[in-house]
Sequence to fold (161 residues):
Amino acid sequence: MRAAFATGNCGALAGDRTRLAETGASLARRGKRARLLPDCISKDPLAAAIRKDDPQWAAIVNWVMEALVQAEQSGVTQANVKRMRDRAGSDPLLRFLLGASREIGPTLGLDDDWVARVIEATGNYGEIYERNLGGASAMKLPRGENNLRENGGAITALPFK
Fold:
């Protein structure tokens, strides 16, 4: 289908926005133009895929996703994670994100600062989105529903209890 579209044998493609945006970016790299229409005809959610036979890895992936969203909600970024460690104080969310809490890491087989290291390596959810799908990427997809709830989107971290 993608090849038929690229060669002009197909006039339009349908699919999830990320796939369509990636197709458009790929075509642009080859000097061809495609346009992503603004209308959305489906809202199928996408999620991380995890093998069924590895529950520890599934738990780690789920916790990483929640922690990245919480980091964005808490203002913890790739650039400020080390400075924020000094300010964590008694805030339980910051203590969890920045390695001062033993609540979750050991139960996953990870050390205390595992979340801080993930944020240092990748940034928070918003930074990852911006770099890979958003304005800093070839796809230039607006966040829309992938934005935090307080910014008009549908994303919110689960409570850390």
Notes: The CA atoms of residues 73 and 148 lie 7 Å apart.
